[in-house]
Write a structure and sequence with these properties.
Helix content is 0%, strand content 54%. It has 310 residues and is mainly beta. The strands form two sheets. A twelve-stranded antiparallel beta barrel has the order 1-2-3-4-5-8-9-11-12-13-14-15.
Length: 310
Amino acid sequence: AQEESAEPAKSKVTDSTVITVNVTTAPEMELVVTERIVIPVMQFDNPLFSGNNLNIGVRGNFTPITLDGTVDLTWTPIAFIQIFGGSTLGTGWNWLGLGNGLGLISRNTGSTLDPYTNSYKTSITNVPFEGLVYKFYWGGVFQFDLAAVVPGDWNHVVVQTRQEVNYRAYTAAGADDSWLFKADNGENRNGFNYYASYVLGYAMPASPVLKMVGIMGEMDQYLYTTANRDFWGDGLGRWTISALFDFSITKWFSVTFLVQVDTKRNYDDPGDLVAYKTRKPFYQDRDLVDSDPLRLNFKKFVWQFNFKVR
């Protein structure tokens, strides 16, 4: 038998630029420009180590109401594991006076008390470019392709999970302030968070265009503590579940289509006219239904158009 080589395999440093346009039915729109440099590190002829590398990424995200940039570093020490870390910095402004993009969320005690819910309206304080949203994150990825163990064109069942811890904050927010950024629900606090994603996919060998179908689950969990947060379910994980379809149109153009549902919390508000429909305006005034805290709700359709520039 031929002896397996332990010498590093010859590989070159590569770089690429990809422009992605995200469009949803929310409605939302985002332009993402990503530059990546892949540096071979400790590559050997063994399939488990032949793709070892350092992947350096610089990304800019632009929406009609925000902009942010990310720098990340991913190390692949073995084919099925990645270790990563990165940081993001962004800001936002008020578009057409709608009070979105970036701002503080609070209970507007100066408003008229709602007679049905006995709660004050939500106040959004939005000053364009008033502060910066920053995030530091780190974690790992485990990925597995069945075809690596059972070779065959029809055996590409892919499993991937990403586990991440991050610290996220808004410089204009105090320790007890809630804030919004981009199109989120405005329930953010400065502090640590946990994010996990799980993907089960199948590569389509017989299709020249549809390359993969799968299902993805994503979970955000707030790790920071807020007094009485269990009353409105702030400690519950926020799940988004997506059916995904990945199309390769040409060598330089691909499309990913997602159908998303997410978890919503059920509240038992005094004075509700319709169950789970009439809400206390400020989220921290709401009371979670302990016996039935979550339900699935249609979220949106997402189209990701990817253009590989080089």
